[in-house]
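Notes taken during the Thursday session

The instructor put the following on the board and asked us to keep it in front of us for the whole hour. The protein is GTPase HflX. We were told not to look anything up and to reason only from what is written here. First, the residues (428 in total):
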Amino acid sequence: MKQTTYDTASTVQDRAVLVSLITQVMKRSDTNHDLSLQELAKLAETAQVEVVSTVTQNRVSRDAKWFIGKGKVEELKAVIDELDANTAIFDQELSGAQVRNLEQVLNVKIIDRTQLILDIFAQRAKTREGIIQVELAQLSYILPRLSGHGKNLSRLGGGIGTRGPGESKLETDRRHIRGRISELKRQLEEVVRHRSLYRERRRKTGIYQVALVGYTNAGKSTLLNQLTEADVLIEDQLFATLDPTSRTLALPSGKEIVITDTVGFIQNLPHDLVAAFRATLEEVCEADLILHVVDSSSEMRDDQMRVVDEILQELGAAAKPQVLLYNKIDACTPSQREMLPSGPQVLKISAYNLADQERIRELIQQHVVGDTRTFCVPADRGEIISLLYRTGDVLEQVVEDEDLWIQVRLNRADYEKQGYLLDPYMQL
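Then, after some discussion, the predicted C-alpha cells were revealed:
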C-alpha cells in the first residue's frame, strides 16, 4: 500500500482519504491511473472536500466483498483513524454491497468516483434542463444500490454526496424512485423536443454551427467569453460550467456563425451522466465544425486528448471536421512548445491573446467559405435572396429584367443543408 500525506490545516467539513485499486485488467487498458487519481483529488477539491491522504492498492482482481481486500481495508481504517478522516472516496465504481461492507468496518462515509462527479454536477446545474438531467442520472445511479447503501442513504450529515435530489427522495422506496425517474424522462423528452425544434430552425436558416469541445478545465469557456464577449462563469475548477452556451460570432468577412460551449469531458465519465446529458452532448453532432480545445500545459495532455476523441467517437461525431486549438500556450515552457505538433488545422494559442483570437476567426472562416456558385432568382423571391445572403458570401449581384443573378461563395455543408431550396435557381 502506497500512502501520500497532504497538508491538513484546512477546516473543510469533509476530510477524505482517496482510494484507488489497480488490477491486472486495468493495467492492460488505456486508462492512465496517475491521471485518474490526480483528477479524483481535483474533483474532491471542486466539491470542497479536504484530501488528507491517498491509498493505492495493486491486486490481480477486485475483491467482490471488500473491493480492495479485507486486509487492505484494515490498513485503510488505520489511516482514516490516524488522520481523523470522515470520508473515503474510491476512484472506481462500487456496488451497493461493497459500500455497505466498507461502511460497517470503516465507520465513515463511502463515496465512489461516479457519485462524486454527480454531486459536482448537482452543484453546477442551473438551468431546468441541467437540473433534470443531473437528478435523472443520480436516481439512475442510486436505484440499483438501495439495498447496499446504509448510512449514506440517511443523508443526515450533509456535505459531499448529499446534494441533488435531496433527502426525501433518497430515502424513498424503489417504487417511488422509479416513478420519479419516469417523470424526469418525460420532462427530458419535452426538453429534447424543444431542443430539436431549435436545431431545425437553425438548420433552415443556414447558420453555420461550431462546437467547442475538450477536456474539463481546458479553457473552452474562457475562449468563448473572449471571442464573443459572453458572460460564462470561469473558474480554475473541473466542470466550472455545466449548461451549454451558444453565442453569435462575427467572422472577418462579416458573416455570423453560432458557436457553442459544451460540457467538459473527463476520464471515466459516468454512463448514467452521458445518457442523461445526451440531448446536450448531441449539440456536438449538429455542429459543422468542432474546435477541440486542449490544455497544452498539462502533463497529461495526450491522455486527455485521447479521452475526448473516444467520447466524440461514442457520440458519432468523430468524422466531423475538426480544428485543434492548443490553449494556454503562455503557460508552456519553451521545450513544451517545441513538442506541440503543427499542421494546417492546428493553432497554438492563448485565449486572452487578441492576435490568436483573430487567427481562430480566420481559420473558421476558411471552413465556412466554399465553392463559388451562381443563382438566378426572381426578384419577388425575397426569402431565397435572403437565404443566399445568410448562408454564403455574396460576391456579385446583377439585375436582369425581373431576375437577380447572384454569385455566391457557398460552403459545401451549407449548400447540402439548403440544396433542396436553392437547386431550382442554380446556374450550371
